[in-house]
Design brief:
The complex is a heterodimer of chains A (203) and B (632). Chain A has 203 residues and is of the alpha/beta class. Chain A has helices at 18-27, 38-41, 49-57, 75-84, 126-129, 131-139, 158-176, 182-187, 197-202; strands at residues 5-9, 33-37, 61-67, 102-108, 143-144, 148-150. Chain A has one domain (5-202): Flavodoxin domain (Rossmann fold, 3-Layer(aba) Sandwich). In chain A, helix 4 (75-84) links the parallel strand 3 (61-67) and strand 4 (102-108). Chain A is globular. Chain B is globular, with a radius of gyration of 29 Å. Helices cover 66% and strands 4% of the residues of chain B. Chain B is mainly alpha-helical and 632 residues long. The longest helix of chain B is centred in the first third of the chain and has 33 residues, at 192-224. Chain B has 3 domains: 12-170 and 191-396, Na+/H+ antiporter like fold (Up-down Bundle); 399-532, 3-Layer(aba) Sandwich (Rossmann fold); 547-626, no CATH class. Chain B has 27 helices and 6 strands. In chain B, helix 2 packs across helix 13 (269-294), helix 4 (62-73) packs parallel to helix 12 and helix 25 (552-574) runs antiparallel to helix 26 (581-602). A 6-stranded parallel beta sheet of chain B has the order 3-2-1-4-5-6, with helices on both faces. The chains are: A alpha/beta (203), B mainly alpha (632). At the A-B interface, helix 4 of A face helix 27 of B.
Amino acid sequence: MRSRILVLFAHPAFEKSRVHRELVKKVKHLAGVTFHDLYEEYPELDINVSKEQQLLLEHDIIVFQHPFYWYSAPAMIKQWMDLVLEHGWAYGKDGNALQGKQLLSVISAGGPREVYSATGRNRYTVHEFLRPFEQTALLCKMNYLPPFVIHGTHKMELHEMKQAALQYEGLLLAFHHGLLSQQELAQVDYLNDLNPIPQALKD
Amino acid sequence: MEKSILFQAFIFLSAAVLLVPLAKKWGLGSVLGYLIAGIVIGPALFGFIGDNTHDIMHFAEFGVVMMLFVIGLELEPSLLWRMRKAILGMGGVQVMVTGLFIALVTMQFNFSWQESFAIGFTLALSSTAIVLQTLQEKGLMKTSAGQSAFSVLLFQDIAVIPMLALFPLLATLPVDVDPEAHSTNLIENLSAWAQTAIVVAAIVSVILAGRYIIPPIFRLVASSRIRELFTAVALLVVIAISVLMSLVGLSPALGTFLAGVVLANSEYRHELESDIEPFKGLLLGLFFIAVGASIDFNLLLQKPVLILGIVAGLIALKSLVLWVIGKVFKLKTDQNMLFAVSLSQMGEFGFVLFTFSNKNGILDQGTVDILIAVTAISMALAPIMFLIHEKFVQPRIGTKMVVEEKEHDHIDESNPVIVAGFGHFGNTVGRFLKAHGVGTTFLDIDSDRVDLLRKMGFKVYYGDASRADLLKAAGAEKAKLIIIALDSPEKRMEIVEVVKKHFPNLRILARATNRVDAYDLMNAGIMNIYRETLDASLRMGVDAMHFLGFRKYAAKRAARTFFEHDEKYLKYLSSLKLNSSEYISTAKKYIEELESLIQSDMHNESLHGADEGWSEEGLIKEFGSAKIEKKD
């Protein structure tokens, strides 16, 4: 069966983001993908909880796509998590609604990959910064996938962004068609390292 | 033919119901519709009514009285005081100059100076009923031309009183003494001083009653909660003042106008207005029908050149005088043209004054017949004059409909947004859009405002936004949105219809005055409706709760819930008939639901129903107080 993908996109200044413009362009109308622009839907952070929960139920892979703000997500994602992932629904004794689903973070970061390391400027890896998401997934009985991270956006050329967008598109397509094995996924640090995804699609 | 009252009412109402909507549809306005209805059922065509039209007109003139009462209600005393210059200045000059002018001309045709004087001053008057009704319908009352015309009409209404007093002195013919004729006027046999004193006393008593007696009566009646009783009191007020004014020989219209002004500040103003409004409308309609029916086509056929010549000459002369007055009082050219055209007809007081002059031995029957025909015809022509002015004259003069494009202004050509109406509402929306570089074109009917806006660099089109040709000129074919922000709900509805018909691709964002107005727009298929007071009142509610000690964020979210719930139910309620039992029960259910929703959000321990993610009740239950994983 094909996986249904829900992209929960959060960017408070989308109109100013070059990299997310390219990413969104590629995946917005992709078959099997529901693109959900949270800041567009809830300009006052007034999240419609039941609607969001319904959307979650209808999808197998949940993607948080957002820029990396202060080593985390924009406020909207936090608000969304606070409100949508209710006790007794998403977690807790009777909270099994999300059981078995996959959670994926798709992030853009200004700094290069090297600075996110024990010896780098930011002292921790992106994985370490993403622990709250990882644990959230775990608490909700979901499987947390390795993230897809676009590093160094501050110095990125347009063609590089387009390349990243293409890879993102390929990744979602591969997920949709179930072309990625758990084993394969377990081996990589970032999903970006699943190389070459286009190869998988050719088969 | 059966001439029972019911049958007559049947004829009048069916003529109005059939012809007025047609006239409105063809852009002729309701006044012309009623006049045509009158001509159709009058002696000229079907002859359903005839011999008694003057009685009907006399009765229907009460509509004019009511109209002035309603106008008074909308005019606060301070506003009236500010208009004193225009009323006395413009009005005084208009009546004096026009009256003397016509009298001089009349004398050239072998009339005595007494006759000429009576004819001149009677013909100097214009029709309050037709002019105000037409100006209101076209949304022109608040323009400087509308205000000037109103001032002059007000003065004319006052001027009728001394005319009635002075005309008997001009008598040259033998008078049939008819003791019944003026039996309603109690004070005419008293001395001049006593008369003046009584007149002043009457006016003062109207003002005092409006201040101190009428409001407590309203309060009493309102507390009884019987709807029709309130209507009865409103009618009683108008009628009582009319009777009092007639007793002392003053114009009832003037008296009720005064009462209206006094009551303009009272809390019952809107209720009074909505109670009187339908009576006023019906009686005015009846009045216009009677005017139409009273046109003597036989006389017109016998002496077509004479009568039409007099009509044309008078309209030309009156317009000319008005135009010069407008110039002196510094009206802008286009406003001045409208002012001159609007008051160029003769008025309904003509019927009274000519009959009065005849009874008092000033004018003979033949002259009076011709003059009454002239008056009626000129009144019937008035709406047509308005129409000609609007369609052919106005587009060519003064404040142009379209400004010539500046060479480098090419972006303006296809502005994506059209804002109809640049009052307080359109103003805010427009400035907001402009501040964000959104190309916006404005439409407004107030030429003074248009001039000002143009000076400030706005792209403004002048004219009635419900006209398809104007919308087209403003770029409606290329624009994406039209924001309908005018004050008048009727006008907004007209624009909606025109846009839907001629520019189906234009998305409509409409302002709504209130709930009922929003239903109408919704039923017309409009998706984007903005109730003008909703956001501000909720914001105020949020602040009120804040000052009472509620957390701001909680209050804000409650307002949000309220807003969404209200909008949702608005959609549903719009499909039901207003005030039907289903409507009321649904509205009740809605209020209960809303209350429980907000209360459970605010007062209960749990955030049940609203955002449960912030609630910790479930967590505490499951994990006890020892270990809470998610929140502390």
